[in-house]
């Protein structure tokens, strides 16, 4: 397939860094390689005779369905590189993949999408994100930097080229961030540009950046590359292809998930053969002279970027591979984390150097999970939210699947006439709806709750969560910095009146736990006790939008774990007390500073628990409480408080109902359920008590 059918040149009025041309804006025609532009940037007033303008298409928001996205792989990268590396004598330039401009995969991007500039690694082709083009195209206006094979532009001039681009774009959209995604060498380029432009709102993503090039395990053999015979160089790209990544994981990218084993093995074998036969293109991408030039550039780029790290003020997300054979990427990520003022890390322990090319890695999911996507100066968890796709939903379910298997949740709901039924048939389909309930120990109910609403009702619950789950300062205190990513991906928002208001205004189904952390981290003997504050503000807010309020109870935690070491125990020992205080000091915002009593005891800690032979979870959603038409009535604080107490009593009543009824469930124990499934099939629905 010709490149003209795949990519469009960005019609960008900026100059390459040639002598005596530092201020002249020019456009280098490359129509022989690329299709006509699909995006027009702002044009200088002297050229148009009018004020700066920008032309954009009107685009709709993306939804869950991405079934039309084409599965691409390293083989596609190599095949499409053939056309791009044909010499046209031109300088480095930007191109925009056509699949991004069309929205890719059955969706289109929002009108106010930020610009994302991809800065390639040593290859310079600019196709390093090929496996992510279509998904990125729903969220970003994507431009990729292409550096021709025979181009010898020095690193500092590449910095100036990118710098002119971001300045031009920032002048058109000063309130919108610009993303720089740099891979290896491109990571040095991104950091250098960020250091020189601290006044521009940049979001920097680094994938195994080459700032650690001087510590590369390859350093001892690099001098040999300069004297290696020409006839041996032809085999070097093959070696680099295997060193930079895992060929098996790269080949897996084209194998459809969920296939029968025999068919999957057949497809994988075909992918490996196709990949190996395409590797010869690497010799054309990195001929001897170009490789030596790029290695020299790596040294200067690493030195240039490292000397300016102190000036980087941008938000930075470092993606690091545990099996990078070219660079000590994990060690480098830690160094950057301590040197940069706003830095996050996401580690991929089983990946190689070419992270973007491996199966199982999704850049869009990582960006969303890290809370790194925004369209304006400040991250807005409501407006900037992008719905999860099926792959993200599957990963979420798999992370909680053990709860589903072990506890086999029973979901009950209540119809308008008060009748209790099995399933979620009594849940209102149209929002806004506020679900108010009891928070189990460690929030164990969340996984089954969210997944069941999606599968049965196609409803995405937007949870109001503790700010700690969104605070970047907390991430490095956790064993896995991505522990809370799933909450961001699934639409959780930090607790605040503003976020609650805006979710209701969008007719969302909102999940609210008035007991919060105090319930989820309760002490010994406090199971099923509500720790709700006296304030009734959520009732008045719901009435403002005529939202339905659905109280719900859930039981079963006492059939899964026993709390053996709680907050009170922590406070008894100086070492553990100091640890809890250090954990919370300056990192956790107190949400109930004006309240009194035990509801204010919300210090974060990790309770010691002992597992039990699993019992069963039970959910009961009460009859929806209408607030439509009651706005004036519920403006009265006393009336609102009466309804608040009614909701609380309903939750308590549902908990007592479930605790009583589960005693009559013949399948409450794990063994009884296994016996039932052994005789009826492991996919069969297991009965419960009569109601």
From TrEMBL:
GO terms for cellular component: membrane. Pfam families: Abhydrolase_6, DAGAT. The keyword DNA damage does not apply. Residues 154-360 form the AB hydrolase-1 domain. One of its GO terms (molecular function) is diacylglycerol O-acyltransferase activity. GO terms for biological process: triglyceride biosynthetic process. SUPFAM superfamilies: alpha/beta-Hydrolases (SSF53474). Keywords: Acyltransferase, Transferase. InterPro entries: AB_hydrolase_1, AB_hydrolase_fold, DAGAT. It comes from the Eukaryota. Belongs to the diacylglycerol acyltransferase family. This is AB hydrolase-1 domain-containing protein. It comes from Papaver nudicaule (Iceland poppy).
């Amino acid at each position: 397939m010709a490149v003209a059918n795949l990519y469009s040149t960005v019609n960008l009025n900026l100059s390459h860094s040639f002598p005596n041309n530092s201020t002249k804006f020019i456009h280098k025609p490359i129509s022989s390689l690329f299709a006509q532009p699909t995006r027009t940037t702002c044009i200088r007033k002297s050229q148009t005779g009018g004020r700066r303008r920008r032309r954009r298409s009107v685009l709709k928001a993306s939804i869950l369905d991405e079934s039309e996205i084409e599965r691409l792989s390293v083989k596609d990268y190599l095949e499409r590189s053939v056309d791009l590396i044909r010499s046209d004598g031109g300088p480095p330039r930007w191109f925009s993949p056509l699949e991004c401009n069309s929205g890719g995969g059955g969706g289109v991007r929002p009108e106010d999408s930020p610009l994302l500039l991809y800065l390639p690694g040593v290859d310079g082709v600019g196709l390093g994100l090929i496996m992510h083009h279509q998904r990125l195209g729903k969220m970003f206006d994507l431009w990729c930097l292409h550096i021709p094979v025979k181009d010898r532009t020095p690193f500092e001039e590449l910095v100036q080229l990118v710098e002119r681009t971001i300045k031009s774009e920032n002048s058109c959209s000063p309130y919108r961030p610009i993303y720089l995604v740099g891979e290896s060498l491109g990571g040095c380029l991104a950091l250098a540009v960020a250091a020189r432009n601290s006044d521009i709102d940049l979001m920097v993503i680094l994938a195994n950046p080459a700032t650690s090039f001087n510590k590369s395990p390859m350093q001892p053999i690099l001098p040999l590359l300069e004297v290696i015979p020409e006839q041996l160089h032809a085999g070097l790209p093959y070696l680099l292809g295997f060193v930079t990544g895992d060929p098996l994981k790269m080949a897996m990218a084209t194998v459809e998930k969920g296939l029968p084993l025999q068919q999957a093995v057949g497809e994988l074998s075909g992918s490996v053969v196709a990949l190996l036969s395409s590797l010869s293109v690497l010799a054309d991408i990195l001929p001897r002279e170009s490789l030596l030039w790029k290695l020299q550039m790596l040294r200067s780029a690493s030195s240039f970027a490292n000397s300016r790290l102190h000036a980087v003020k941008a938000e930075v997300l470092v993606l690091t591979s545990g099996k990078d054979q070219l660079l000590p990427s994990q060690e480098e990520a830690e160094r950057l984390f301590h040197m940069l003022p706003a830095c996050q890390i996401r580690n991929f322990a089983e990946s190689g150097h070419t992270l973007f090319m491996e199966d199982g890695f999704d850049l869009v999911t990582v960006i969303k999970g890290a809370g790194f996507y925004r369209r304006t100066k400040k991250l807005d968890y409501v407006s900037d939210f992008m719905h999860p796709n099926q792959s993200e939903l599957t990963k979420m379910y798999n992370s909680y699947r053990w709860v589903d298997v072990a506890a086999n949740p029973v979901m009950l709901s209540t119809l308008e006439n008060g009748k209790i039924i099995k399933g979620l048939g009594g849940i209102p389909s149209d929002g806004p709806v506020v679900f108010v309930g009891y928070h189990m120990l460690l929030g164990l109910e969340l996984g089954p709750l969210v997944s069941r609403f999606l599968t049965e009702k196609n409803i995405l619950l937007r949870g109001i969560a503790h700010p700690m789950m969104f605070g970047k300062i907390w991430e490095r205190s956790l064993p896995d910095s991505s522990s809370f990513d799933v909450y961001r991906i699934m639409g959780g928002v930090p607790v605040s009146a503003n976020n609650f208001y805006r979710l209701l205004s969008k007719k969302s189904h909102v999940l609210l736990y008035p007991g919060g952390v105090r319930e989820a981290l309760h002490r010994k003997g406090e199971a099923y006790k509500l720790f709700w504050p006296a304030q009734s503000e959520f009732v008045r807010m719901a009435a403002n939008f005529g939202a339905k309020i659905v109280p719900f109870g859930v039981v079963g935690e006492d059939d899964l774990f026993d709390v053996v070491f709680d907050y009170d125990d922590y406070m008894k020992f100086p070492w553990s007390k100091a640890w809890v205080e250090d954990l919370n000091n300056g990192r956790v915002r107190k949400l109930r500073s004006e309240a009194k009593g035990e509801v204010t005891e919300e210090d974060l800690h990790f309770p010691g628990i002992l597992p039990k032979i699993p019992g069963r979870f039970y959910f009961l959603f009460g009859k929806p409480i209408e607030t439509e038409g009651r706005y004036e009535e519920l403006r009265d604080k006393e009336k609102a408080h009466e309804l608040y107490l009614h909701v609380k009593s309903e939750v308590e009543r549902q908990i007592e109902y479930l605790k009583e009824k589960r005693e009559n469930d013949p399948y409450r124990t794990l063994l009884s359920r296994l016996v039932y499934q052994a005789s009826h099939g492991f996919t069969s629905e297991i009965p419960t008590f009569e109601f």
